[in-house]
Every structure is written in C-alpha cells, then in structure tokens.
Amino acid sequence: MNDEPFLPHQPQLMSAVRARNLARHFKGFAISLRNDGFSTEANQAERDAHWWLNYAIALSQIPPGRTDDDGR
Q: Residue 43: is its pLDDT beyond 80?
C-alpha cells in the first residue's frame, strides 16, 4: 500500500478565457452525447463543463501578475 496521500489532479495554471473555452467544449460535447442517447456520459461531460466554468471564474478573480504568497 502506498503511504502517499491521494491528491486529485491539479490543472495547470491557465488564462480564464482558456478555462471558459474548455467549459464550452465540454458543454457542447454533453449536448451531442445527450442527442445521441448517451445520458450517463452526457451527465459526466456536463459535470466537467461546470467544473471548468467554476475554475474559469476563480481564475478571473486573480489580478494579472499577482501571486498568493507575495502579500499584495
């Protein structure tokens, strides 16, 4: 058994626009899957779209050039 704690995958830092575009792609994919009758996969794609949209919103709140540890 591995003694290292389980950590979920951390996405790379990117622009809020890129994260928003990923959310749009997942949403479109979900719509396409739902139209083809794959409701389980469509639900997963919708969850992914929501996650990327929330990530985009979080990224948009960080001013350009600022880091959390610089105290500004």
A: yes
Which helix (H) or strand (E) is 62 found in, with range? none
Query: Tokens standing for 32?
Result: 């396409």
Q: What is the DSSP letter of 15?
A: -
What's the pLDDT tens digit per position in 12-40?
A: 888 889 999 999 999 999 999 999 999 99
User: How much is the pLDDT for 53?
Assistant: 95
Residue type, 15: S
**CA separation, residue 1 to residues 7, 10, 45, 63 (Å):** 15, 23, 32, 42
Q: Which residues 6+ apart lie within 8 Å of 49 measured at CB?
A: 23, 24, 26, 27, 30
